[in-house]
């Protein structure tokens, strides 16, 4: 930033008083003939010597440089020839008589004309040299260039005149328009700080290429404005783009901050140009004057805005007061509405009991509970959380109205959560100021979720999910319900009791889901027991028959009755083969470990190799575009394929079997085709041993279908089609 030099004009007035003593007192001589002409010529002030009639005896070098003349063009001419007509008249009529009469003249304005015809404003000081008779012999004159000051005064006057009668936004627009003219700059704008951290500003008025343009908001980092908002006057007269690469195409910059009445930076004024911008202290002073006015204007604008907000708040309070009066006048109507609300609550609880006793998935039941709870308890949002097996973590299971960024994959520690405190105390808790509670407590939420929670909600009702025993005592804890309110909310005792009822229903739903899971596991165990009984009833009997026949035939052979040995060995082999086939089928009737480890395709491949191919059947597995399937789908398809393969071996006497599996994004298809005897599907219900009904039941549980294609002597195809979306 440029700074002003210590001006020689500050001492020229005093110097002019002592100058005659340093020069010759011979009035007939010129200064060049004095003892030290170099001293006079090299002085940094603008100096000239006149005789009492106003003829120029000499001037120093700086006089010649400022006015652009050669010495030969000056000496011997009348002083007033270098003044404007008005200045010459004023010098002859006023200044010269006063100087001759008083002996000195201080700080009077005098306009000079340069060699090139331009006018330069000067401040003139002079002293008279006298002889022994007190007659004036010579006049010593010192000049000071005040053209920049006059220009600054004119600029200040024009700016003051243009902005004197305008305020607010009009003032800012007028200011940047006039500053653009004064500085001849391409861009001028006025800003205000846009955040408390003072890292961003927004423009209040902006002009570019003599056109008012749209206001913008921008980050200060990396811009020359950053230092200004920091409280400094910043002037970069050239090379701006090199200093700040973001200022593409700009060469120079001048920025001045402005403040409020408390001394805090409110914004700044910036002047930017694509050519060098040379400013002295007067230019900066002018800008600082209007920066002070801008600070006052902006502070008034902000106070006016705050006043409007306050008035709006008063209007809002007045409206609320009117609403309260209307509420008092309509108590009877409100009581009727309360009765209706209680009726809706009763119906909702009744419907909830019906849903709990239905076969709806747990997720649907929890969604219904949280939706009903938010509606009847007038909450903006709600969620149900369940306890993990470690009893230390809560995981969201159902939500309504929560911001997606907050609810997605949400989990938190029990001991570091609002809901966890209700669980640990075994009773509902109301948190009436969430923003304050978040700042005071160690809550297990990341910073983004904290911001979302504080911005959207003020009140939280946390309800634990408790299972009550038959005796009414509190039993196991399953999790909790959280209801969120954007405004402060006062809960009645009835609302608290209702929230506890919803918590009990949600706990019951979770407990029922666990009981169903236990029942399903018991059903699987029962199925395995049944298969074990079949193993005992079929394979064991065959093996026992083998034992008896082998012992009988051994005795026949021992007694020499060998004529029946071939027939006996044949029968023995058939029984053994049948026993082996039944053993293989029964073993694979259980879900093998390979299904869990290798999945559906690996399990089918193992089954065909271990059973069908060992039984002499030409067995093939054809797979097309198989996706990773959910475990329930794999288990169902394997069971149906197992049943179909068993039928092909037991009843169809097939010699060739093909198993096909194909899957798309939304559906999977399984086909088992054999070349066996075939049958009439319409008469299948008369042959319970082939298990067609169990195939259909398994598929329908997961939303699938089973199709049987067969005819006597033409083989059989069992086709299963199952949608994947219904089981994900």
In words, what does this structure look like?
With 728 residues, the protein is of the alpha+beta class. The chain has 4 domains: 9-145, 2-Layer Sandwich (Beta-Lactamase); 151-305, GAF domain (Beta-Lactamase, 2-Layer Sandwich); 348-517, GAF domain (Beta-Lactamase, 2-Layer Sandwich), CATH 3.30.450.40; 598-727, Histidine kinase-like ATPase, C-terminal domain (Heat Shock Protein 90, 2-Layer Sandwich), CATH 3.30.565.10. 48% of the residues lie in helices and 22% in strands. It contains 21 helices and 23 strands. Strands 6, 7, 8, 9, 10, 11 and 12 form a 7-stranded antiparallel beta sheet that branches. A 6-stranded antiparallel beta sheet has the order 15-14-13-18-17-16. A 5-stranded antiparallel beta sheet has the order 2-1-5-4-3, with helices on both faces. A hairpin with a 4-residue loop joins strand 1 and strand 2 (56-59). The longest helix has 49 residues, at 281-329.
Topology:
Layout: H1 9-22, H2 37-42, E1 46-51, E2 56-59, H3 61-67, H4 85-102, E3 104-113, E4 119-130, E5 136-145, H5 147-163, H6 168-183, E6 187-193, E7 200-208, E8 211-212, E9 217-219, H7 225-229, E10 234-236, H8 240-243, E11 252-259, E12 265-273, H9 281-329, H10 331-356, H11 362-376, E13 381-387, E14 393-400, H12 404-407, E15 411-413, H13 418-425, E16 429-431, H14 434-440, H15 447-456, E17 459-468, E18 474-485, H16 493-537, H17 539-558, H18 565-589, H19 593-612, E19 618-624, H20 631-650, E20 656-663, E21 667-674, H21 692-701, E22 705-710, E23 716-723
Parallel strand pairs: 19-20
Antiparallel strand pairs: 1-2, 1-5, 3-4, 4-5, 6-7, 6-12, 7-8, 7-9, 10-11, 11-12, 13-14, 13-18, 14-15, 16-17, 17-18, 20-21, 21-23, 22-23
Helix pairs in contact: 5-6, 5-9, 6-9, 10-11, 10-16, 11-16, 16-18, 17-18, 18-20, 19-20, 20-21
């Amino acid at each position: 930033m440029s700074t002003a030099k210590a001006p020689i004009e500050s001492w020229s007035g005093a110097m002019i008083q002592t100058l005659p003593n340093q020069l010759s007192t011979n009035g007939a001589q010129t200064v060049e003939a004095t003892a030290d002409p170099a001293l006079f010529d090299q002085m940094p002030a603008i100096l000239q010597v006149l005789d009492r009639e106003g003829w120029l005896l000499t001037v120093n070098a700086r006089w010649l440089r400022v006015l652009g003349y050669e010495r030969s063009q000056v000496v011997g001419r009348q002083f007033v020839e270098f003044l404007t007509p008005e200045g010459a008249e004023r010098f002859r009529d006023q200044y010269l008589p006063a100087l001759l009469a008083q002996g000195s003249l201080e700080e009077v304005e005098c306009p000079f004309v340069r060699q090139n015809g331009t006018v330069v404003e000067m401040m003139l000081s002079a002293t008279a040299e006298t002889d022994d008779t007190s007659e004036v012999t010579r006049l010593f004159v010192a000049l000071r260039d005040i053209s920049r000051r006059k220009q600054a005064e004119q600029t200040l006057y024009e700016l003051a005149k243009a902005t004197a009668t305008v305020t607010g936004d009009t003032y800012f627009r007028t200011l940047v328009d006039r500053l653009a003219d004064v500085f001849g700059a391409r861009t001028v704008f006025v800003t205000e700080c846009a955040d408390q951290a003072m890292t961003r500003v927004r423009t209040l008025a902006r002009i570019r290429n003599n056109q008012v343009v749209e206001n913008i908001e921008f980050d200060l980092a990396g811009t020359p404005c950053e230092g200004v908002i920091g409280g400094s006057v910043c002037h970069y007269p050239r090379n701006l783009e090199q200093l700040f690469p973001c200022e593409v195409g700009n060469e120079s910059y001048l920025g001045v901050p402005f403040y409020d009445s408390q001394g805090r930076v409110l914004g700044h004024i910036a002047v930017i140009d694509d050519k060098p911008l040379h400013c002295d202290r007067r230019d900066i002073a002018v800008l600082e004057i209007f920066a002070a006015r801008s600070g006052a204007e902006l502070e008034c604008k902000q106070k006016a805005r705050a006043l409007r907000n306050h008035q709006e708040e008063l209007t809002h309070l007045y409206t609320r007061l009117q609403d309260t009066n209307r509420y008092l006048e309509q108590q009877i109507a409100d009581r009727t509405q309360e009765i209706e609300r209680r009726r809706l609550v009763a119906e909702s609880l009744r419907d909830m009991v019906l849903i709990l006793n239905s076969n709806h998935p747990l997720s649907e039941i929890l969604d219904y509970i949280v939706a009903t709870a938010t509606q009847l308890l007038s909450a903006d949002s709600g969620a149900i959380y369940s306890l993990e097996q470690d009893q230390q973590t809560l995981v969201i299971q159902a939500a309504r109205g929560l911001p997606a960024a907050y609810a997605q994959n949400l989990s938190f520690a029990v001991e570091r959560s609002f809901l966890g405190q209700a669980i640990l105390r075994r009773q509902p808790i109301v948190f009436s100021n969430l923003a304050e509670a978040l700042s005071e407590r160690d809550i297990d939420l990341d910073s983004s979720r904290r911001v979302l929670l504080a911005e959207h909600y003020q009140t939280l009702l946390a309800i634990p999910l408790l299972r009550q025993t038959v005796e009414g005592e509190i039993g196991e804890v399953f999790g909790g319900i959280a209801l969120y309110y954007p405004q402060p909310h006062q809960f009645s005792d009835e609302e608290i009791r209702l929230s506890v009822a919803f918590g009990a229903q949600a706990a019951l739903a979770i407990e029922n889901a666990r009981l169903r899971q236990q029942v399903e596991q018991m059903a699987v165990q029962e199925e395995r027991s049944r298969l074990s009984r079949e193993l005992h009833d079929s394979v064991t009997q065959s093996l026992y028959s083998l034992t008896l026949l082998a012992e009988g035939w051994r005795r026949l052979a021992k007694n020499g009755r060998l004529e029946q040995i071939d027939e006996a060995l044949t029968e023995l082999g058939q029984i053994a083969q049948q026993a082996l086939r039944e053993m293989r089928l029964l073993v694979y009737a259980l879900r093998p470990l390979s299904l869990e480890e290798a999945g559906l395709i690996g399990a089918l491949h193992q089954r065909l190799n271990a059973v069908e191919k060992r039984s002499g059947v030409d067995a093939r597995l054809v797979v097309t575009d198989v996706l990773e399937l959910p475990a329930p789908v794999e288990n169902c398809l394997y069971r149906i394929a197992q049943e179909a393969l068993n039928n092909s071996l037991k009843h169809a006497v097939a010699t060739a079997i093909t198993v096909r599996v194909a899957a798309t994004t939304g559906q999977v298809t399984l086909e088992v085709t054999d070349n066996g005897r075939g049958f009439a599907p319409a008469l299948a219900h008369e042959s319970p041993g082939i298990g067609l009904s169990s195939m259909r039941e398994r598929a329908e549980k997961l939303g699938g279908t089973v199709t049987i294609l067969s005819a006597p002597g033409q083989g059989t195809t069992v086709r299963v089609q199952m949608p994947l979306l219904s089981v994900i």
